[in-house]
Specification:
The protein has 9 helices and 25 strands. The chain is of the alpha/beta class and about 400 residues long. It has 2 domains: about 200 residues, FAD/NAD(P)-binding domain, CATH 3.50.50; about 130 residues, FAD/NAD(P)-binding domain, CATH 3.50.50. The protein has a 6-stranded mixed sheet with strand order 5-2-1-9-21-20. Strands 13-12-11-17 form a 4-stranded parallel sheet. A 3-stranded antiparallel sheet has the order 6-7-8, with no helix packed on it. A hairpin with a 5-residue loop joins strand 23 and strand 24. It is globular, with a radius of gyration of 22 Å. It comes from Paraburkholderia phymatum (strain DSM 17167 / CIP 108236 / LMG 21445 / STM815) (Burkholderia phymatum). One of its GO terms (biological process) is aerobic electron transport chain.
Amino acid sequence: MSQKILIVGAGFAGVWGALGAARVLDGAGVRSSDVEVTLISPKPELEIRPRMYEAEPQNMAAPLLPLFDAIGVKYVAGSVDAISVQDKTVSVVSANGQKHSLAYDRLLLTSGSKLSRPPIPGLEHAFSVDRIEDAVELDAHFDALAKLPASTARNTVAVVGCGFTGIEVATELPKRLREKFGAHADVRVVVIGSQDSIGPDLGPNPRPFIAEAFESLGVQTVLGSGVVSVDAQGVRTASGQHIEAGTVIWAGGMRASPLAAHVSSHIDPLGRAEVAADLRVPEAPHVFVAGDVARALTDDEGHYALMSCQHAMVMGQFGGHNAAADLIGIPTLPYRQPFYATCVDLGDWGAVYSEGWDRQMKLTHAEGKARKQMINTKWIYPPAPNRAEALAAGNPQASFG
């Protein structure tokens, strides 16, 4: 009977985890009949989630079956709703609601994260760009608004959240709205945040450029007072201000998949599982965790991985490598990713690109935009379904970035 490696999730960590596991087995000459690698997800595609703020979000997915066929990875359609580390099984729910159980010898959990939706009254009125279906719904909403007479409410979008996602959404909106409403439409984009500054987690270096982009694009800010309610006419802040808007977009931060708590009792405030250096769960040694569900040190300086595709891809390579290596008796590798870069899209203004955790500015304006487009259209996509190229992409010691 073959041994089984299960990968839960087809996000960046899951896809690169499959590449990493397949590479180890191929290098060791292990036949697929002896060790099966199976990835479980609702759809056999990678959502290019970092691009959901862009136009045409329905096109932001990469098919995975040809790639999996090339590297000998099996695919199971469904959602995992429970994990038993004692029985070494996962419970899978198919699209029609039927449940079945799959056993594993090693598990790589890469179930990702979702937009955090706190119990704010009326939040159901808000749109988001968390997933393809969310971004498509928002795009259809703009199409519907374009058929209505121009008004202040129709032409106003309130973006709640002044972090990475909120900034990219807001700076892309003036162009998108004028494409929908007309080139000379008087559009208004307002970014609302409880913090006192835009991009508080980005540090001081990129902030002047972001402020310049906001001013250039006409993006307004309401800071220092969070949103306490949402309705069909806009939002109300803690200070009592009501901002009239026909569209509200929620960009209020992320939370890890609840499956992290199924494999570990040590969960951080973002819902991520604490992992050892090789991404193993100490209390469940047959389980490895990577991507947005893992709280993992990236270096010896005390920096932890962020919920980003940059970290998820490399963690996936290490996680897949280590799950397969541990199964066949090869030493695992400590996850390390000392290089860190940040690239923030700022719409028609351009983009800013920095390197290091202290975010030393390297590229801005058009040069930054060119780097962002390279990241968004090339670097974060899976490799071609060519076996040699795909297996090489799973090498954690030759990581992108």
